[in-house]
Amino acid sequence: MKSSIKIKPITQDIIFAFNEQKLLILREIFMCDEDICGCDLIEKTGLSKDLLSYHIKSLRVRGFLEEVKCGVRKNYSISHEKYNLVKEILKTAKII
């Protein structure tokens, strides 16, 4: 017999964010006083453009990041709705 466990949405968000690359991206964006562009994130994280794009897209879809286009660049910031959650996740992971 298989039991089904219901996981609350906030718990799903926490589990989703606990990935080394996602934590690295979230930390860099969180630590910035203003929006940061993708090219700066590549430099700061050391991730490839493709891998960074993949994780940024998934973080945006889950509502962790907001994106603002500035010419040909895209700038990212932590969403207002998930700011406190991101702060707690980063503290729990001991990377801030």
TrEMBL record:
GO terms for molecular function: DNA binding; DNA-binding transcription factor activity. The keyword Transcription regulation applies. Coiled coil: none annotated. PROSITE patterns: HTH_ARSR_1, HTH_ARSR_2. It comes from the Bacteria. Keywords: DNA-binding, Transcription, Transcription regulation. This is HTH arsR-type domain-containing protein. InterPro entries: ArsR-like_HTH (IPR011991), ArsR_HTH (IPR018334), HTH_ArsR_DNA-bd_dom (IPR001845), WH-like_DNA-bd_sf (IPR036388), WH_DNA-bd_sf (IPR036390). SMART domains: HTH_ARSR. It comes from Candidatus Berkelbacteria bacterium CG10_big_fil_rev_8_21_14_0_10_43_13. Residues 2-96 form the HTH arsR-type domain.
